[in-house]
Amino acid sequence: MKRSKYLVLCGLCGMVALPVQAEMRPSLGFSGVTGLIDMPSGEQQSDGTLSVVKSQFGPIGRTTLTFQITPQLSGSFRYSSVKDWFVDPSDDITTYSDRSFDLRYQLTSEGRYVPAITVGLQDIIGTGVQAGEYIAATKTFGDRVKVTAGLGWGRYGSYGSIGSPFGDRPEVDFGEGGKLRTGQWFRGDMAPFAGVEWKVNDQWSLKAEYSSDAYVEEAENRATFERNSPFNFGVEYTTKANMRLGLYSLYGSKIGFSVQLALDPKKNPRGGPLGPGPLPVTARAAAKSWGPNWVNDRGTQTAMRDQTQAILARDGITIESMAINANRVHLRIRNTRLDNAPQAIGRTARALAATMPASVSSFEIVAMAQGVPLSNVVIRRADLEALEFAPGQDITMDQRVQVLPAASALPAGAIRTEGLYPRFKWGLAPYVATSLFDPGKPLQANVGIRLTARYDIAPGWVVSTSIAKPVYKGIERSTFPSDSKLPHVRSDANLYTLEGDPAVERLTLAWYAKPAPELFSRVTVGYLERMYGGISGELLWQQPDKPYALGAEINYVQQRDYDQLFGFRDYSIVTGHVSGYYSFGDGYHAQLDVGRYLAGDYGATLALDREFANGIKVGAFATLTDVPFDTFGEGSFDKGIRISLPMAFFTGRPTQKVGSVTLRPLLRDGGAKLDVEGRLYGTVRKYQESDLDAAWGRFWR
């Protein structure tokens, strides 16, 4: 066995000296990270890839969500389960459940003579059962063969150790979990691992590996399965739908399988939007002549507005008002369908080019949301005409467009569109409500019907509601009821799910306004969310040409009854935050909230998100407050991952519907925020310069 260890080390060194190359798509291992079978590799997925892996062998099951945060950095959240873990017959459950986070960073990309080398940290703030560190190198030979070798610590150093070059691995007091164990990293026994992948053809691949994971706890201490060999073998099949299926022989005793799903946000599965194409830009000489007196003729101007509206209606864009003089048109629009803000601006500019008199040289397009003007996008008509087919048209137009603050008051002489207010809209759709990570039943769901309705009384005044009726109740009472030492502001969420039938999830009156050109406001009163009712007020300061914004929110709320009808419980509190927002460019956004949370604790939440031009958003957040870790309970502090997927990306049809999910390892009471709908920053920033720049590629489409 010692000979095989040194052969692995020689292979790791020898890979540096051998040439490449053609591309073989990186696969995902049993742990959900880029790898072979049960061992990691030195590769990373393509930038932005979001993947899900479900794997199972013997008693061990894993479900892993991985996001390629940057070309070099990836992060993973894993939910693992091991059957037959508890052998005491008095135990209520026999399956051990565990949640863990990983980080991987690629030190070098694969080159002609240099392999791809990645360093990884597994289970950095979990229980430590999955904890391990590694450095892995991968080299491709031709377009069919890929070789990986590496060194591991922790569970990756538990079989075939060749020493402890960085000292002993200290024991760690787990406590409530959720703490970084930096003192363990790369300490203790170090062991080699290696493997090879052969791409038979575009669909089939064969794999073999030597594993350095002894499965000490699972195989030796608890005897959940027999580990008879360090060698694993597998065959994988890749479908056309970014899915890979695998069947494996593991550790000489078990057959395993995996399902790998990968989504590249930069590649639309439909190849692009499937809606109607844009109008060509109409040359000024060909534009309709309105006669010499149109500037002073309100009837003629109304006809211009109606003709422009007729063009924009096919894209779901509604004109709220239009003001025209000899050189400029100021148009306020409401975009109800297109999911891309620059595309809505571009379609509006083309419509104006087709309807405005030749002397009108400047288009001011103001997007409206909740009855409030967001920003004023100024486009020179000459640029629109000159750049339609010019090389680099996107970048050049983006550089020439101005994004200015939009005043609340309408320009003099503006013509309002009649019949826009009051306006009623409703919808009825199925829904699925999930309950995740309960140790007794980690995946449960309710299926039902949700009625939503919205009544726009006047600009800025909105009444809205959401009522849910479960049809199939798959969510049962939690096997671990809350034992929180804090007020049960979130940990009783399961009771709301059980007793809300039907449930008035939300019933609110909201008032949106713009007290100053760069200041937005919101006041919402009513049943704000399924667990709280009261009043919420917010201010946001946002300059349209700046990448940062500041906000403040204050709420007085009282906890609702479990049945989510109209009664309240005894608990009430004043909560609120001061918030800072920053856009780093390339779709990276940060938000910092500092203030008081629902349980009365004080602290801060940091959220980091990456948003793609098509609206897909993946982010993570963490909250630290003055609640001690042992009072907070298991997990020590609030943290999670959030994902938003626009339906237009999958259907190809213009729609603003978005599906969102937040994954928390645990839902506790510390660091809990109010979940009020319609917060300002998410509404306002879509038409600010930094967001418009990021999505500008669809201006001409």
Q: Which short descriptors sum up this protein?
A:
701 residues, mainly beta, 13-stranded antiparallel β-sheet, 12-stranded antiparallel barrel, 11 helices, 31 strands, disordered N terminus
Secondary structure layout plus pairing:
Blueprint: H1 2-14, E1 50-57, E2 60-68, E3 73-82, E4 96-108, E5 116-122, E6 132-141, E7 145-154, E8 191-199, E9 204-210, H2 216-221, E10 231-238, E11 243-250, E12 254-263, H3 298-312, E13 317-324, E14 328-335, H4 341-355, E15 362-369, E16 372-380, H5 381-387, H6 393-400, E17 402-404, E18 415-416, E19 423-436, E20 443-458, E21 461-473, H7 493-499, E22 503-516, E23 519-527, E24 532-542, E25 548-560, E26 568-585, E27 588-596, E28 602-611, E29 617-625, H8 629-632, E30 638-646, H9 647-651, E31 658-663, H10 680-684, H11 689-694
Parallel strand pairs: 14-15
Antiparallel strand pairs: 1-2, 1-12, 2-3, 3-4, 4-5, 5-6, 6-7, 7-8, 8-9, 9-10, 10-11, 11-12, 13-14, 13-18, 15-16, 16-17, 19-20, 20-21, 21-22, 22-23, 23-24, 24-25, 25-26, 26-27, 27-28, 28-29, 29-30, 30-31
N- to C-terminal distance: 62 Å
Average pLDDT level: 90
Could you tell me the radius of gyration in angstroms? 29 Å
Level of helix content? Answer: 10-25%
Shape: globular
**Content-based structural category:** mainly beta
Separate helix tally: 11
Report the major sheet. 13 strands, antiparallel
Work out the number of β strands: 31
Fraction of residues in β-strands: 35-45%
Strand order within the widest sheet? 19-20-21-22-23-24-25-26-27-28-29-30-31
- List low-confidence stretches: 1-22
